[in-house]
Design a protein that fits this description.
With about 260 residues, this protein is mostly helical. Among the domains are: about 80 residues, Serine Threonine Protein Phosphatase 5, Tetratricopeptide repeat; about 70 residues, Serine Threonine Protein Phosphatase 5, Tetratricopeptide repeat, CATH 1.25.40. Helix content is about 80%, strand content about 0%. α6 runs antiparallel to α7. The radius of gyration is 20 Å and the shape is globular.
Length: about 260
């Protein structure tokens, strides 16, 4: 058991450092030896997904999700993988399965809200985020979700208020700071945008959305060297499966900067 614990700790460290291939090399033999261990399955699925093996990740999670003793973590991970693949209906089924067992699971309501937002069903998304807060008023992901929803609806004042509430609940989470940075940048307040982006990066120097904002701020200031540094960091650290379009856009900007 001690050997398993050490290997898992090493795998997690590799993943935190962005080295998913090294994590996968540790986790694959562990999963073969312990096929019913849900913690190993969830970690391996993430490593597989981040190394371009999304189909294998999905197969692994679906196999575990069919087991009678499956944990909530596996069902969450399955829903997230399905959502990343664009299968919103199947993702919804996974999250609702969690609520069938525990209808006060705030994060399951948040995930349903995220699916609704992706499908541009804003009223349903709001209802899901608000239900999450009724389950747990400290659910940071629901606060951020309501902020993003308010921003999408053009209500920047409400959006900033939601993001600030998220920061008050968890001042160590970079997401709300980066959300504030984007909101301020879009509103033309470059100073505030820079401040919030820097706060996000102080918490997590690999947080890609903050590097993106810093890159655009530098570009607007005609600081091409700084813009290149920030955009390169964004491309290096951004591994979200839903970020392909923005990565292509940033790579085009980098190519233009190089040509210049």
């Amino acid at each position: 058991m001690a050997g398993i614990t050490v290997a898992l700790e090493q795998a997690v460290q590799h993943m935190e450092n962005g080295d998913y291939a090294a994590a996968r090399a540790l986790l694959e033999p562990l999963q073969r030896e312990h096929p019913a261990d849900d913690e190993i399955a969830v970690l391996l699925a993430e490593a597989l997904s981040e190394t371009g093996q999304g189909r294998k990740a999905l197969d692994l999670l679906q196999q575990r999700a069919a087991a009678a003793d499956v944990s909530a973590e596996v069902i969450f991970a399955l829903g997230d993988e399905l959502f990343a693949c664009g299968d919103y209906m199947a993702a919804t089924d996974s999250y609702r399965r969690l609520l069938d067992n525990n209808d006060t699971c705030a994060e399951a309501h948040v995930r349903l809200g995220m699916v609704a937002m992706a499908g541009d069903e804003r009223a349903r998304a709001r209802a899901c985020f608000e239900q999450a807060l009724r389950c747990d008023a400290q659910t940071v992901s629901a606060l951020n979700g309501l902020g993003e929803l308010s921003a999408a609806e053009g209500d920047n004042t409400a959006a900033l208020s939601w993001f600030e509430r998220a920061i008050a609940v968890d001042p160590d989470d970079p997401e709300a700071y980066a959300n504030c940075a984007e909101l301020c940048y879009d509103g033309g307040d470059d100073g505030a945008a820079r401040k919030f982006a820097d706060q996000a990066l102080a918490l997590d120097e690999r947080y890609a959305p903050a590097w993106l904002i810093r890159g655009y701020l530098a570009l607007d200031a005609d600081d091409e060297q700084e813009a290149r540094r920030c955009f390169e960091a964004f491309v290096c650290y951004e591994n979200s499966s839903g970020a392909e379009d923005i990565i292509v856009e940033v790579k085009a900007v980098l190519a233009a900067l190089s040509d210049g």
